[in-house]
Sequence to fold (288 residues):
Amino acid sequence: MIKIERTEYAFASLNASPDEWEAMKAIVGYCASHFNHTDLRYSLPFPEEQRHGKIESLCEAMNTVWDNPPIEDMYRDDLLLIAKCIIHTEGKELPKVNPKLQEAIAQQLLDIDVYHLFDDDNVTPEQWDLWNCERRIHDTKSWIIALHAKQTDKAGHPYAQHPLRVQMRLLELFPNVDEDTRHAALLHDVMEDCGITAEDLRERGYSEQTIQTVAAVTKNKDDGLTYAQRIDQLAAKGPLAAIQVKLCDLLDNNDPSRLSALSEEQARSLNKRYSKAIQVLKARIAEP
Fold:
């Protein structure tokens, strides 16, 4: 069981079982070596040019500097980075990491409320706003993983991986995108595939912007429109956030690594459909 106690100013002690510590090291190591394939590169509260280096330094410290827990006087930023790596990769299959143990560690860190362990220190409001935003994003990730748990994509892969990737693409293409749109990217299929309603989202505290964005990218089976007509309608009348989310959705659907898992005929047909829709949405976004 993980135990974290603040010792002084910006330091804390960390204790964990050997298995938990090895899993934590493996997760941070994964984030260091696959940094450009995680959304940590967009969400860490440090200057962009420092983010990867901080993860690499942390990985080095965990493997060569710190012995097995208990570890005394761990600096605040290191502790928070460990938490970020673990929480941001929850639900993703990682080498050398037991998924159930990973989930348990992430939940323990949330229960400890590690993000708020140093609330009274000299941290800027902007930095804590970023941490709080990421915690809310994590909550949405956890929910959609549960909602899509028994669903698979056309290639038989866990469906929850798709909205997680869509949100990453959104950050990559639109780095200044707001939190509401990030939630919408994660939630973009829950109305259509999981029976979630606008009122359900409202009850969970999502903003009207998020709800409207999800609704705008949700297929209305009774509208009588073809696929191409729905795309044209979204491009012409949809809010920008919905167009951005749908574009990222289509880019992920049209990714060669996903299409290659399908039959040649099906892949060719989908690629033709998605490519045309992507062009329409890109043209709309490019408009002044």
About this structure: Residues 3-123 form one domain. Residues 55 and 81 are 7 Å apart (CA to CA). Residues 125-147 form the longest helix (23 residues). The longest strand covers residues 3-8.
